[in-house]
């Protein structure tokens, strides 16, 4: 049986409720076979606007407006067959605890403090939404769950779950500050992230000012990222196709194998239009293998952080870049530590279509 929640029911409970075992609170909780349609959620005072918790299946969120949450507008954890569509997620992250981009992260920080965040969730769709002006850590995220729960404070681990067969499509992601527009990420060993499709989205951010070393606080970072962010994490078969990106403080589309033992394979980057992008902050860059200000603005960056000594080097292999258009950037595609990369029919006006870092890449 499917339960449709009315506006009255959705807003009846004024107090915040615990959001499972995340250590966060939420204005609204949805369980299996529930639909939330056409309502407005003012999540002021709560950490999350809408929470879909572990084991939930067949959940619909449609035509909803969510604003005012301290952290996420919508947070889905360890669920399946969840659809978030035709909704507006705006003005959340008002008291966010996003982890800093570098340095020592406090245990209370949230690695992926996005407007919409899915962790450990499979066979789900985020489509035709407007995600705007969320101020904690960017727009939409899809990740695994486990000892590191990317959507909750670091002192609250999640249940071990990968993320498979999710679709993020046809969303407008505009002017979300302090984090990336769309992130597909793996943080834990043994929780693979597989077959995540990022299709036909429009991501609008801001390009760096001339000579700028670090994005100022509150910047609209933009970009689409596929990354492994913890030891021995894996991402496979990610597809970034037909998106439009206008302005990013960092490179426009990034595939980044960050930590020892990480593996990213079979990534497809195709038919995207990428314009007015940036580079990694610092001088030459906070990542030793990425393009910094001295290398120049970059449309697509494919990076394995090779050269560390903690364990097996991270792998980034079998990436297919095809028919992408890169405009108003110095570098079209940056390669570092990559293997078996196929680049074809690159278009646009990048000054240097393909650049390889000192560590090499092919």
Q: Averaging pLDDT over every residue, what do you get?
A: 94
Shape: globular
Order of strands across the main sheet: 2-3-6-9-12-15-19-23-27-31-35-39
**Helical fraction:** under 10%
Structural class: mainly beta
Q: Main β-sheet, in a few words?
A: 12 strands, mixed
Strand content: 35-45%
The poorly predicted ranges are 6-13
Radius of gyration: 19 Å
Number of helices: 1
Q: Count of DSSP E strands?
A: 39
CA distance, first residue to last residue: 53 Å
Detailed description of the structure:
The protein is mostly beta strands and 362 residues long. The chain has one helix and 39 strands. It has one helix at residues 7-12, and strands spanning 3-5, 17-18, 25-30, 34-37, 40-42, 48-52, 57-62, 65-67, 74-77, 80-85, 88-90, 116-119, 125-127, 130-132, 140-143, 163-164, 167-169, 172-174, 180-186, 193-194, 197-199, 202-204, 222-228, 234-236, 239-241, 244-246, 253-257, 263-265, 268-270, 273-275, 298-304, 315-317, 320-322, 325-327, 331-336, 338-339, 342-344, 347-348, 352-356. The strands form four sheets. A twelve-stranded mixed sheet has the order 2-3-6-9-12-15-19-23-27-31-35-39, with no helix packed on it. The protein has an eleven-stranded parallel sheet with strand order 1-4-7-10-13-17-21-25-29-33-37. β2 and β3 form a beta hairpin. The termini are far apart.
């Amino acid at each position: 049986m499917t339960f449709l929640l009315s506006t009255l029911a959705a807003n009846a409970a004024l107090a915040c409720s615990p959001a499972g075992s995340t250590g966060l609170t939420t204005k609204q909780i949805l369980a299996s076979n529930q639909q939330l349609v056409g309502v407005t959620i003012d999540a002021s005072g709560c950490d999350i606007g809408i929470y879909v918790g572990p084991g939930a299946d067949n959940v619909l969120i449609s035509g909803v407006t969510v604003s005012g949450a301290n952290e996420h507008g919508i947070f889905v954890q360890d669920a399946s067959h969840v659809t978030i569509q035709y909704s507006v997620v705006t003005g959340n992250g008002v008291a966010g605890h996003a982890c800093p981009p570098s340095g020592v992260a406090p245990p209370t920080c949230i690695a992926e403090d996005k407007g919409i965040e899915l962790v450990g969730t499979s066979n789900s769709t985020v489509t035709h939404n407007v995600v705007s002006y969320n101020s904690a850590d960017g727009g939409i995220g899809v990740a695994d769950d486990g000892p590191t729960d990317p959507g909750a404070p670091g002192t609250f681990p999640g249940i071990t779950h990968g993320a498979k067969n999710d679709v993020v499509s046809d969303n407008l992601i505009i002017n979300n500050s302090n984090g990336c527009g769309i992130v597909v990420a793996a943080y834990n060993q043994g929780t693979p992230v597989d077959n995540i499709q990022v299709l036909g989205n429009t991501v609008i951010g801001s390009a760096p000012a001339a000579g700028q070393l670090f994005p100022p606080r509150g910047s609209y970072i933009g970009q689409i990222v596929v990354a492994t962010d913890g030891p021995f994490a894996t991402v496979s078969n990610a597809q970034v196709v037909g998106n439009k990106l206008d302005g990013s403080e960092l490179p426009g589309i990034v595939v980044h194998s960050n930590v020892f033992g990480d593996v990213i394979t079979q990534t497809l980057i195709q038919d995207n239009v990428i314009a007015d992008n940036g580079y990694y902050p610092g001088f030459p860059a906070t990542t030793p293998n990425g393009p910094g200000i001295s290398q120049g603005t970059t449309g697509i960056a494919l990076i394995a952080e090779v050269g560390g000594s903690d364990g097996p080097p991270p792998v980034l292999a079998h990436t297919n870049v095809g028919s992408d258009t890169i405009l108003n950037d110095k570098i079209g595609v940056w390669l570092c530590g990559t293997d078996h990369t196929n680049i074809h029919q690159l278009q646009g006006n990048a000054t240097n279509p393909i650049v390889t870092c000192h560590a090499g890449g092919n």
